[in-house]
Amino acid sequence: MARTYRVTHRTEYRYTKRVTASYGQLHLLPRELERQHRRSATVTVTPTADVLTGREDFFGNSVSYFEIHAPHRRLTVTADSVVEVAERARDVSLMGAVRWEDVARAVADGGLAEHLEATQYVLGSPLAAPAERYRAYAAESFRPGRPLIECLESLSTRIHADFRYKPGSTSVTTPLADAFRRRRGVCQDFAHLGIACLRSLGLPARYVSGYLETEPAPGRPKLTGVDGSHAWFSAFVPESGWLDVDPTNDQFTSDRYIVTAQGRDYGDVPPLGGVIYTEGRTESLKVAVDVVAI
C-alpha cells in the first residue's frame, strides 16, 4: 500500500527597504524514488518571477531557480506537491547481518565499485567532516563484529538520548563541533552528527531533507501551517541499498517520511537560498508547512 500526501511549503520574506532584484534557488519538491512517486508539483513566486526554471542537480534532486527584476518589499515562494509514499518492502531486520567492518573494508578496497554513488559519501564535506571525536563517540555502538543494522540502531538511540532537541540553539552556520560539545541542537545537527560518525569509521553516509507527517494530540484537530522541514541521515547497506535513520525521533524512516533532497550535508540542499540587491535588511521571515494525508 501507499500513502498520498499534499505538501505545501510557504516562505515569506519582508524587507525594510525596497529590493531591486532577487535571485533564488530552492530544494522543495519531492524526489522521484523507488518508494516515492511525485504526482504533481508546482512552484509559485510572488511578485511574479521574470525567470522560473527547473533542473536536476548532481545528486538527482529537483532544483527550482527564479529571478525577479521588479522592485519589491515582500517575497513569497510557495511549493505545492502531491506525492505517494509506499511502505517499506521488507522489515529492516531482514536487510542482512553484514558486519560494519566488512562494509568499511569493502569501501576502502574498492569492493563497492558497483555502488560508486555510495563510495563518494565516505569523503568528508564542509558540514560533516570525519574527526577523532566522532569516531570515539561512535565506537560504543560500532563494536567489533557487530552487524551494521544493529550499529545504526544503537547510534540513533544514543544520539536521541545524549543530545537535547532545542530549536533556536543552533543555526545553519553553527559548526557541528559546537553542537557536539554543547550536546544540543536540531534535526540538522543530529543528522550531521550521524553522518560524521559513520564517515569517521570509513562508512558511506549522506544527508536527507524532507518532511515528516505529524499527528495531533488525541482528540485535537490537526492545525494548519505547523508542520516543518525535517532532516535525517542515510547509511549504505550492501545488497540492500540505502537505509534512512532519524535520530531526532530515534527510528528508521517509514511511509510517513517524504524526501525532497539528498546530498553530502545541508550545504548541498538548503530549502531556499539566494541573493537580493537592497540597502535594507530582512525585516521578517515566516515559514509555514502543511503535510496532509489525502
Please tag this protein with its features.
alpha+beta, globular, 6 helices, four-stranded antiparallel beta sheet, 294 residues, 20% helix, Immunoglobulin-like, C8orf32 fold, five-stranded antiparallel beta sheet, 2 domains
Helices and strands in order:
Blueprint: E1 2-19, E2 21-26, E3 36-46, E4 51-56, E5 62-68, E6 72-86, H1 100-109, H2 116-119, H3 132-139, H4 148-162, E7 164-165, H5 176-182, E8 184-185, H6 187-200, E9 205-212, E10 229-237, E11 241-246, E12 251-252, E13 257-263, E14 272-277, E15 282-293
Parallel strand pairs: 7-8
Antiparallel strand pairs: 1-6, 1-15, 2-5, 2-14, 3-6, 4-5, 9-10, 9-13, 10-11, 11-12
Mean pLDDT: 93
Number of helices: 6
Q: In percent, how much strand structure appears in the residues?
A: 35-45%
In CATH, what is the class of the largest domain? Alpha Beta
Radius of gyration, Cα only, in angstroms? 20 Å
